[in-house]
Every structure is written in C-alpha cells, then in structure tokens.
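Look over this today:
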Amino acid sequence: MSFEQKSEGPKKPFKYFNHAPRPDNKDIVFGVQSVLETLRSGKEIDKILVQRELGSIEVLEFARLRGIPVQKVPTEKLDRVTRKNHQGVIAFVSAINYAKLDNVVAGIYEKGETPLLLILDRVTDVRNFGAIARTAECTGVHAIVLPTKGAAQINADAMKTSSGALNFLPVCREESLAQTVKYLQESGIQVVGCTEKVSKNLYEVDMTIPTAIIMGSEEDGISDELLKAADELASIPMAGRVGSLNVSVANGVVLYEAVRQRLSL
C-alpha cells in the first residue's frame, strides 16, 4: 500500500525511465549557437545536456543565470538523443511557461479560494506526469510544483497524455522543495505527505483547509527530508495482496478524497 510511484513488475533490470520514448525533434534544440539563441529568447528550457569534454562554454553561464539544470554527459548519451551535429550541446525545450509559486498562492487567496496544491517529488515518468496533470486539473488543483532537477520533462508527450490539461493548469518549478514546503506552511497551507510508511489513513486528514499534497517518486517515494517537514503523513488503505499503486492512480484517489471533503461542506 503506497501513495508512492513504483514500477509494476520486477525492479531490476526494468525501470520506467530506461524505456522513455526518444524526444520529438520539436522538443529539442541542438548546437552551441542554436542553444544560445534559445536561451537568449527567454523560452522555457527543462534542462541542457553538455558533453563532458567541452569544459567551460557560454551556454553554461547563460544556463546558470537562468537557473536551468545542466547535465554533463558522455557523447554517447547525446548521440542517443539525436544523430545530427549537436556539437556537444542539446537543450530540452518545455512545452509550457512555468508560473511563479508566490504569484499563484497570492492569486488563490485574492480570489477567496481554499488552496489545493500538488507537489511531485522526483516523479520522472512523462506519461505518469501527464496523467497526474489531467486528474489535477479535473479536481480543481490550483498548481503543480516540481523540483528544478529530477522531474519529468514537460514535452509533447506529456501534453498529449494530459489531454490538454497542462494548457490550463499552472506548473511551478522550484530549486528546493524543502524550502517550498516551508514557504507554503508560512503561507497558511498544511502540507500532507502521502506515504505507505504510516498507519494513519487518508480519510483521517482534513483537506477542507488550505492543503498541499506531496506525491513521491517512482523508485523510493517521498524523500526523508520532505517526510520530516510535512505537517501530516497519510496512507491509502489497501485490501489486496499487491502493496502499492501506480503514482497516477494513487494521485487520483487522494485528490478525489479532497474533492469529496470539500463538496460536503
């Protein structure tokens, strides 16, 4: 029983992210000058892959200034993304524009609404993310919060799986989820960590008040740091022999419990 996303089937050697589809060409920009111009244009970029041997280049400085994650990788990894002349640099362009969390929170309160936010801690499967976003939009979630590093790329595949929900649902990208949790708590929002590691179940948690829900990663759930920081920890009751739910399914269970509670007021 778990709120945390786990692979269904043997953990080794199978892993979700090893079977991710090749990115669509419209999701990437490659070549030093092309990536530089994309950075200068202000377009949202999820991450940049740079060949290890390139050392210090202008792309790295631009990425640092804009807070864009950069991974130094072997040439072989770049070649798996595209066989074209990438010159050792590939940028993954986001299909959306990220929102600022403080603006989102302020806007919710200004409208007189009760915040319902979703924090995804290192959920990396693109299709799971798209499905989560679809459910989040349908249940009235005000925004999804992702970490800058270790999150699913928001590409055409994610957009398709979300059935367009990502066109309407704000997504915020934060450098530190621990600091984000602290900020939300200071803003009067309780933070609920969804984990199999506790006996308290979902239906004992009051979600009629301002709430942010944390869902954990595919491999190891919510990080210990976030578990300790959360105001409440809760689990989904399980009656079968299988001990876990896919994170997208678990997300739906949790969010619709929040909807049920709020409709009953």
User: Anything to note?
Assistant: The two ends are 29 Å apart (CA to CA). The domain at 101-263 is CATH 3.40.1280.10 (Alpha/beta knot). The longest strand covers residues 45-51. Confidence is low (pLDDT under 50) at residues 4-22.
